Amino acid sequence: MKITVLVENNTSNSDCEPKHGLSLHIQTTHHCILFDFGPDGSTLLKNADVLGIDLSNVDVAFLSHGHMDHGGGLNTFLERNANSMIYARPDAFSSHVIKVFGKDYAVGVEPSLTNCPQIVLTKSSQIIDEELQVFSSPCGNVLKPMFNNTLYAEKNDVMMEDDFSHEQSLLITEGETTVLVGGCAHGGIVNLLNRAEELLGRPVDYVVSGFHLYDPPTKKTEPESRIDELAAKLSKHSTRYFTCHCTGETAFNRLHSLLGEQIGTISTGEVIEL
Length: 274
Description:
seven-stranded mixed sheet; 6 helices; 20 strands; RibonucZ/Hydroxyglut_hydro; transferase activity; Metallo-beta-lactamase_dom; Metallo-B-lactamas
């Protein structure tokens, strides 16, 4: 399995453009996958071109959740690829806002895209085929990100604190290798990992996901005590972690000091082979 980071907050390739967001190109035995689309189409297209990724060859795509930094490039992808199905949660195209500094800021994905015939709305747990399955948040209450409390979603015409039912994670099984791919893990990375192992009936080999331990508007990181608790729980799994995006540098450095080589970070332009 080959994972190419098309969009992430940082870059290891000077020819690529970093942006706050995420998009991963994943090549497996049977699929050419796009997981998330970054914050805008221009960044997605530029980096894909630099990295030699032809988006028209993608045969299946996934939107992790309904936030612009993950779905802003979706419309551009649809213009480049008229065949791929895009799997998303039913509420992914609802209105989403962040409440910060006394104001509401829209952070949602273009709502009209829900009418696109290539969009497939997923169930809370759904097997796509022998390689791929998705499952949704929430699926537990262990160490959910504290900065979720500034995020709101519209339900029944009322803006409510987001329960992240619009978030989904992707499980890939290729031969004997299992990989859990997430966007921000708003549902809590420990909960997602536990749910993935429950569905698989075996340990997850790799996790590739943001952990949402950093809040960009306020530039705050979760307290060290919570990060230490998270590290202790992650260490109980035999999983290798690749984190990115909303984890934040401070939180990653602390996790790495506790977990060592069990955890790494990825950035725009990087390629990992699992």
